[in-house]
Amino acid sequence: MKAVSIKNPGGSEALEIQEKPIPEAKEGQLLVKVKASAINRTDIMTRENKQLSKPYPILGVEVAGVVIENNNVNHKELVPGTRVAGLVNHGGYAEYVAMPSDRAIIIPDNMSDEEAAAIPEVFLTAYQTLYWLGNLKPEETVLIHAGASGVGTAVIQLAKKMTKAQVIVTAGSDEKLQFCKELGADKLINYKEEEFDQIVLDYTKQKGVDLILDFIGASYWKKNFNSIKTDGRWIVIGVLGGAIVENVNLGMLLQKRITLKGTLLTPRSDEYKAQLTNEFIENVMPYFEKKLIKPIVDTIFMLEDVAKAHRYMEESKNTGKIILKIKE
Amino acid sequence: MKAVSIKNPGGSEALEIQEKPIPEAKEGQLLVKVKASAINRTDIMTRENKQLSKPYPILGVEVAGVVIENNNVNHKELVPGTRVAGLVNHGGYAEYVAMPSDRAIIIPDNMSDEEAAAIPEVFLTAYQTLYWLGNLKPEETVLIHAGASGVGTAVIQLAKKMTKAQVIVTAGSDEKLQFCKELGADKLINYKEEEFDQIVLDYTKQKGVDLILDFIGASYWKKNFNSIKTDGRWIVIGVLGGAIVENVNLGMLLQKRITLKGTLLTPRSDEYKAQLTNEFIENVMPYFEKKLIKPIVDTIFMLEDVAKAHRYMEESKNTGKIILKIKE
């Protein structure tokens, strides 16, 4: 089968289509014929990871496709022909992939493969950070940076549709902000034109927000600190603005009684991903079926154009997800 | 009545005995004749606080004494003559104090006033950090610095007697460590002679601890980071080793999926303190009644010697609590 791996760790030019054997569905797994996969920052990190040793893995941590074979007696409902989407540990950029069957989300009939591939990573991350880690409650206020990103667009929808929380977003262009508004965001901040902490404090009557979802890290540290309420929760899920904070005042952390949590979804255990998927299917998929929440697809690239797709993400051009489509 | 306040914010010489009116028990409060109070670091911070404006408060955040008057119809059991201990927002270093009645812990008959005054602040803090914030579970391992301090001695006892967790302590002398061992600590580290992170990693088979209770802050930052397990919880309740960390790697926070929480008990709401006290009475007081857990009193000073008592704490000479006794 065709699959995307790397020659050696490096830039987008390191990506290449290789011929690989079709994987085997081990006990508890499905063999899925992949219709679409999607690009994530974790793929870029893998692509660049100089610690990686050969044989290099097939990239890609999520897919949508069709069940070919089911090797799990506890999930008999997933008969061959069932359309499913879900997280895979790696191997998503390929014509076939093995997926633990307890991560399979059955795709609603009225949803395309490309839309379905836009769900697992960002919506599960959004669900995990808002609810499992962030404990978001109705009437609370959440600040989300990179509102037009994949996770951003998922967070806005979950926080508004499921919890009726107040949502403040930052983004780098008025176009992106307008898109966030259409998804339900209550307060829009163009971080290139305004000091977001000042706007947040004004909007919250100087109290600050209950919850921050932070992909940015170091470069926003001080302003996030200013923006958070006493007893607030602050979840760090990325460090696009740098990892090293030069001066952290723990005294202020005590005074404000802040909870700071670092998290990543990809390295979590199979059991964790299964539990998360299970709860997600129950609580969130009905919103997709009724089209109250929607997957946000920015651009669809063919598998062969994977290097272009990576560059597109690295330039932060996207609003929502970048999809890889696999030819029939 | 006699009460301890300050001339002006400053060192221990700023403390003075003043004549003050006996406070009134407002609705929901008890008037308590104070038999003993105790010294806390928060009192030292108040004493030094240059932002404080006149009239300066009476110091002291915990007492043991006798109910003189009860102005709460919902707590009729607290009749005059009942012996109680509990947190007060301030005013503990005095002959009388007003205390919200939902913070009153009835003192077991077999416990002295001085012992009872050694309970509220450190045991409620230990309970809050271990369970409400730290979510300690049986079979987990907790690292506690300043094991012989007031909070340290409370944490060791709760973690061992209530949860049967593994407890690793650090302290600065072998005498203090021996005392921690008698309270139940499993692993002792003299931080002046050993690198605690190396010992912790060896003891936990390179996994690290599930929970850190950290009074130290900046000077232990890196070693705490090394000592914590993936998915570990790290509660910062003091910054005796400095507040400013010069270089924090958020990338590592993500990789290890660490939860970092800052907390302080004294500034929390009345409602929070009432709930905490209530749960504490139910879950922990039976252990005191059966003498399975004991208040740790280091030294008893008379109220008039309060400046000496503050200096004694500032020199970290104590193992357990420093008590102020009020003359009959």
TrEMBL record, chains A, B:
Transferase among keywords: no
Keyword annotations of the record: NADP, Oxidoreductase
Oxidoreductase as UniProt keyword: yes
Domain Enoyl reductase (ER): 10-324
Pfam families given in the database record: ADH_N, ADH_zinc_N
InterPro entries: ADH-like_C, ADH-like_N, ER, GroES-like_sf, NAD(P)-bd_dom_sf, Quinone_OxRdtase_PIG3
Transmembrane intervals: none
CDD domains named among the record's database cross-references: p53_inducible_oxidoreductase
Recorded superkingdom: Bacteria
MF annotations from Gene Ontology: NADPH binding; oxidoreductase activity, acting on NAD(P)H
Record's protein name: Putative NAD(P)H quinone oxidoreductase, PIG3 family
